[in-house]
Design brief:
The chain is built from 7 helices and 15 strands. It is α/β, with parallel strands linked by helices and 337 residues long. The strands form 5 sheets. It has a 4-stranded parallel β-sheet with strand order 6-5-8-11, sandwiched between helices. Strands 13-12-14-15 form a 4-stranded parallel β-sheet, with helices on one face. Helix 7 links the parallel strand 12 and strand 13. The radius of gyration is 22 Å and the shape is globular.
């Protein structure tokens, strides 16, 4: 799982996150939570410095340095700093990650008890990827697990159909119910998994529907699922110096206003096939262009051709949304501060 990361809590926040909620064994798996949140689209109470829990890596001095820089610039209380004794690496095992969850839970709970609206800010030096589950089982255990999964899938299918009829909505049975091995595709983005900080036991396999979608607004218990989500963002870059500069540039922009052009890069894909996620995403980009054009004063440029923006073709760039070139960065933009 990959995601877009924000580098300032008070700037634009695009974080690929999701929330999974499961009942315990023999009960029905319900739902999951959250994909992309853009700060400012929905009305919400403003964050204050006391809401922010800044998490850094105790085994990397640069991580602590960036964390201290952030709290000094944003006036976050020193007591909101949380160091974790984790590997100095972009990768952390699932077992190691789960070992540190109680420490983070305790810190977030303390903020809640003081009537704060907790946000976890991960800084430079915190791993970005959690490894897959590693569970050893004998054949008898595997057969038992497969049988229980079949039973659960049957119950979910029946209850889903009943709920659809009762509530007049269309629920989707999660793809993960087709998995016979809960360790399959269980690696994750660390930022995403932290949104599940107070969730009970849940499946680690694959993805599940996002209950923040409008189609789930009337679903029983949806408010609780949404309200118990922990907001997570990240202050990160290729170097600690760039991480600090992101903080400075965000504050400068807040004081002086965002200047420049919003570039949107679609690919001209067709939307004839509703099951084609790429085509649907492409259409969302075109709709975004129309929305910005009508509702905002910021200049906006749309490229609706298969190729990406050519090199050095986007001067005065303030924002970008669109496709990317995997493993081959194209230096298309000259960015405004």
């Amino acid at each position: 799982m990959t995601g877009f990361y924000n580098h300032s809590i008070f700037g634009i926040m695009l974080t690929w996150i999701f929330y999974k909620l499961y009942k315990k064994l023999y009960l029905v798996q319900l739902f999951i939570f959250l994909l992309i949140t853009i700060l400012g689209i929905q009305s919400a109470s403003a964050l204050v410095p006391e809401d922010i829990l800044v998490v850094y890596n105790q085994n990397q001095s640069a991580s602590f340095d960036v964390a201290k820089y952030y709290i000094s610039k944003r006036k976050v209380p020193a007591g909101n700093l949380l160091g974790l004794n984790i590997p100095d690496s972009e990768y952390i095992s699932c077992e190691e990650f789960e070992k540190h969850l109680p420490i983070i839970q305790k810190a977030v709970s303390a903020l809640k008890k003081n009537n704060h609206n907790p946000v976890i800010l991960l800084v430079y030096g915190i791993p970005i990827k959690i490894g897959p589950l590693t569970i050893k089982r004998n054949n008898q255990q595997k057969e038992l697990i497969e049988q229980k999964i079949k039973e659960q899938k049957y119950l979910v299918a029946r209850l889903t159909n009943q709920l659809n009829k009762l509530m007049g909505i269309s629920l989707i049975i999660p793809d993960s119910l087709n998995e016979t091995d809960p360790t399959d595709k269980s690696s994750a983005a660390l930022d995403s998994e932290l949104t599940l900080l107070f969730a009970e036991s849940y499946s680690k396999a694959k993805w599940l529907p996002n209950p923040f979608l409008k189609q789930f607004d009337n679903f029983l218990g949806i408010d609780h699922i949404r309200e118990t989500t922990i907001k997570v963002c990240r202050l990160d870059a290729s170097t600690p110096q760039l991480s600090k500069r992101i903080v400075d540039d965000a504050i400068w922009t807040e004081n002086n206003g965002l200047k420049g052009t919003f570039y949107i890069d679609a690919r001209g894909l067709s939307t004839e096939k509703k099951e084609d996620a790429y085509g649907q995403y492409d259409e969302h980009l075109r709709k975004l262009y129309d929305l910005i054009k009508k509702k905002s004063l910021i200049p906006v440029v749309l490229d609706n051709k298969p190729a990406l923006f050519p090199e050095n073709s986007c001067p005065d760039a303030a924002l970008y949304c669109g496709w990317y070139s995997l493993g081959k960065y194209i230096d298309s933009f000259k960015w405004q501060r």
